[in-house]
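Ticket #4471: complex job returned nothing on first submit. Input attached below:
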Amino acid sequence: MAKAKTNKTANGVKKSGGGELHQTTTSDAQTLTTNQGTPIADNQNSLKSGARGPTLMEDFILREKITHFDHERIPERIVHARGSAAHGYFEPFKNWSKLSKAAFLSNPKKRTKVFARFSTVAGGAGSVDTPRDVRGFAVKFYTDDGNFDLVGNNIPVFFIQDAIKFPDLIHSVKMEPDRGFPQAASAHDTFWDFVSLTPESTHMLMWAMSDRAIPRSLRHIEGFGIHTFRLVNADGESTFVKFHWRPSIGAASQVWDEAVKTAGADPDYHRRDLWESIDKGDFPEWTLSVQAFDQKTADALDFDILDPTKIIPEEVVPLTPLGRMVLDRNPTNFFAETEQVAFHPGHLVPGIDFTADPLLQGRLHSYLDTQLSRLGSANFHEIPINRPVCPMRNFQRDGHMRMQVPEGRVNYEPNSLDPASPRENPVRGFASFPDPDAGPKTRQRPESFADHYSQARQFWRSMTPPEQGHIVSAFTFELSKVVTVAIRTRVLGHLDLVEPELGERVAAALNMTGMADDITPAVEPRDDLPPSPPLSLVAKAPATIKGRTVGVMVTAGFDSRLLASLTAALKREGAALKLIAPKIGPVKDDKGGKHEPDMIVDGGPSVLFDACVVMPSEEGVGDLLEMASAINWIRDAYGHLKALTYVDAAAPLLAKAAVEPDVALGVIDLDGKKGLDDFIAAAKKHRLWDREKLVRPPV
Ligand code: HDE
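Support reply: We reran it on our side without changes. The output follows.
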């Protein structure tokens, strides 16, 4: 083979015959090799018979590289395919051994490593971050007694009561099989057909159509274990629990129009946000709490604690905070960790146990099965991200890609040949709680699961007026995409049972007169359940901008003093500032100081920020006036109800965007007295809800 010509270029790299640029020297330590360790001399040209001849079969280097590449993808998760994850730790607030013998809950001084993965449910791995969807909230605790996986969602109830319906539910929400769309969207006929024929979905639909399904970021979601679990102490005493995660910066959501636009502006909005927050040391944090209750309390409830379509209101059983989780390290490699992590509700440790919730019971089969299909081997527990950190020893052997190299003759138990080999441990070992509930074999739904509307009504009544408006709009949007009128009519019939006002408002918004009146609830919905304030995100939103991002649109010659005071104020509040300018590259302030913008106006629409500052100079405002993206920046900030502040020079921009100053509605003159304080105070409200009726009159 002719030797590739090389010649040095001015910047110390050499050019090969193919024109690629290389470093001039390669140390032994950085020598590229094949997977077998053979050093590679040329990674640019395949082996050919003559420079212009055919490629040779014997090119083992080419074949190894391409074969490996061909196999790079593994099947994506059938649900929850798109996820983002991070490492961190969990520490209990105190010793909880009275409740549970779980080792990781006993010592407040001990941090247990965790890996948390958040996900959307319906879309594929390459879909966007902000569709209307449930979010998965899965945490792997690497405890001293083995791995415990808490595989939950950001909504405390589920669509169905029995695992056998899951494939149908998921088929209905995924892309329709003939046309392959819509991706990552429930707004289509098959989903609404299925749920409208499945009354038990009604409660979950209320949550899925609420703001919970369009979160502001993954750092702003709550998490729930959904099913009732048991905590079991060393004396074998069991307490029922529902698990709750609460974010330390409060839960918050986007508004629908913002979520839609974010999907285009930054499809990785949530993934990027999680990554960047951890990267800059602003670590997301959640409190893990339980609602702990005994059999007597369970018996006194008017629903079944095994029914995953029900919540226990916090007014009935309050939260007990167990400890906190902090996510402080980004994955080193997305595939090795985020993609290969294998969660399973059946990854359990002594001190925690299941109940007979028929949805949970079915999951106990599905997750192990799905790992075999995705990861391709029963040895998936040997992948670093799945490996327990405590000793793991047993006689399971061999299989695809076994990493362990067991020693000795003995691979069975009991044995007498190796007294040091692994044995059962009746003291430390996992013992299932002896749940006495069992009956004759039957395919039956308990009658105690029959009330499908009371808690949906309670949810509706617990919402603030803006949240109710959003639920109406969400049902309207989704049903407007449903072509089959009979399906819409059926959904309206369910909504009427939830609350006549809800059914009527959605019907009016859809311009529909008929609603199904032949849906007979199995149990008459209760009318006396009191609203539960913690169900509303708006009612409990903390007044903070910690962890939020403020966008500042500037042009050359902007007021440097103002930027300095804004920066200082935001820093004090724990918020970040991003600079947006018409062009990338340094922008000069009025004193000649140079600033590197984070984004250009076209690439940094205001949907990416929590509060917005319009700060051009007198000379620069003219440029912005000619840019539709700059006008839309202001219009959207206003329409999405964000605190918006401006300098006097920006007045023509606001006029062109048809936005009028109004301190009470969060449109604030920054040059005015108290301008900065008013802006921060407005930003802390997150949204100026009173503005909504001006931009989206309630239907
Ligand atoms: Fe899952 N679910 N699920 N699910 N689920 C999966 O497991 C399944 C359910 C949840 O970040 C799959 O490894 C069945 C409820 C999360 O990797 C699969 C049923 C809740 C994740 C599966 C349910 C969840 C999954 C797909 C009904 C909240 C992502 C890939 C009986 C409590 C975990 C995988 C991650 C993933 C099955 C219902 C949460 C197919 C059969 C209820 C957060 O095994």
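Residues 1-9 have pLDDT under 50 and may be disordered. Closing as resolved unless it happens again.
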